[in-house]
Amino acid sequence: MRMGEGVEWGLHCCVTLGWLSDEAPVSIRRLAGWFDLPQEYLKKRLQALAKAGILTSSPGARGGWSLAGPPERITVMDVVTALEGATDAFRCAEIRQRGEGGRGAGQEFAHPCGISVVMRGAELAWRRELASHTIADLMARSPSGAARARRNYLSMPG
Amino acid sequence: MRMGEGVEWGLHCCVTLGWLSDEAPVSIRRLAGWFDLPQEYLKKRLQALAKAGILTSSPGARGGWSLAGPPERITVMDVVTALEGATDAFRCAEIRQRGEGGRGAGQEFAHPCGISVVMRGAELAWRRELASHTIADLMARSPSGAARARRNYLSMPG
DNA sequence: GCGCGTATACTCGGATAGTATTTGTCCGAGTACAGGGGG
DNA sequence: CCCCCTGTACTCGGACAAATACTATCCGAGTATACGCGC
């Protein structure tokens, strides 16, 4: 069970854009250059964030990406679900109903099976934890030099 | 981010074996038949559970699988980590240190980045939740008929 | 009855193939800005 | 001076290719039980 790399990319980009929210939008080229990421694929991930309403993109020259809202209102979970999808990691295939186990099925399967209940509960705890942190939190927690360095590089002309 | 199907299989098998712990070990053929699962692949997953010390297997005729310990002492998390590996779903690739961002690196990266801290915390909450439920819990929560039906089928000769 | 050989029913582990998902790249099209030339 | 036209720097979206998981199957080998056969 693995989470895509795009999540790390997306979160770092959100933090970065949070620091530069008072400036012009930042192009993919700049963001990819800062983190040394494949530009085209990063674009795809950011597009997913835009579709979820987390980022906005402006086309044309001097266009680029910026946060769609204040960093305090974007949670880590928002980013994760935008990039990884809203479906749970554990998907109950109801194997208890298949094969011989499902033959003489009575009321037996009216209730969801305990396994999926436990799994759902665990993912809920996970989501809750992710939802309790915002981009603003991440910005505040980062070393002070990081924001400055990024301003210099990413708002530099060229 | 998706969890392998083997987790559902493994948990159902553990519950089933818990119900049959007083009987002879159960063969793969029986288990696969009960849930209608691919026999050879199920075997692989159960072997992973055996390697983790959750199941024991006995070779030879009338051999098969059984729980290695009392169901109260096997947590759902034990099963999940045995099947999915112990590594976190989120793996921090430290992209903050790459590209232009890593050029003038000072003490900046001495502390782990806030993103991985948040992610780790969330997975911890997830694991904690999984660890709080045991196979015995799942057995108790299942409809009473299920245990009976399984005894009939799986301990039946042939 | 006892011992031996054989058939049977399992597991073990490696090798391999198929499929789905993730990651990465490419290209044509649209959009905004900037600058230059003609009116 | 103003308008249009073109070049440039972006994004959008689809199509495609590569890499990596995940799922599934196959096979030779080992091991314990069951059974029958000869002694």
UniProtKB/TrEMBL annotation, chains A, B:
Coiled coil: none annotated. Gene3D superfamilies: Winged helix-like DNA-binding domain superfamily/Winged helix DNA-binding domain. It comes from the Bacteria. InterPro entries: Tscrpt_reg_Rrf2, WH-like_DNA-bd_sf, WH_DNA-bd_sf. Pfam families: Rrf2. NCBIfam families: rrf2_super (TIGR00738). PANTHER family: TRANSCRIPTIONAL REGULATOR-RELATED (PTHR33221:SF13), WINGED HELIX-TURN-HELIX TRANSCRIPTIONAL REGULATOR, RRF2 FAMILY (PTHR33221). This is Rrf2 family transcriptional regulator. It comes from Nonomuraea rosea.
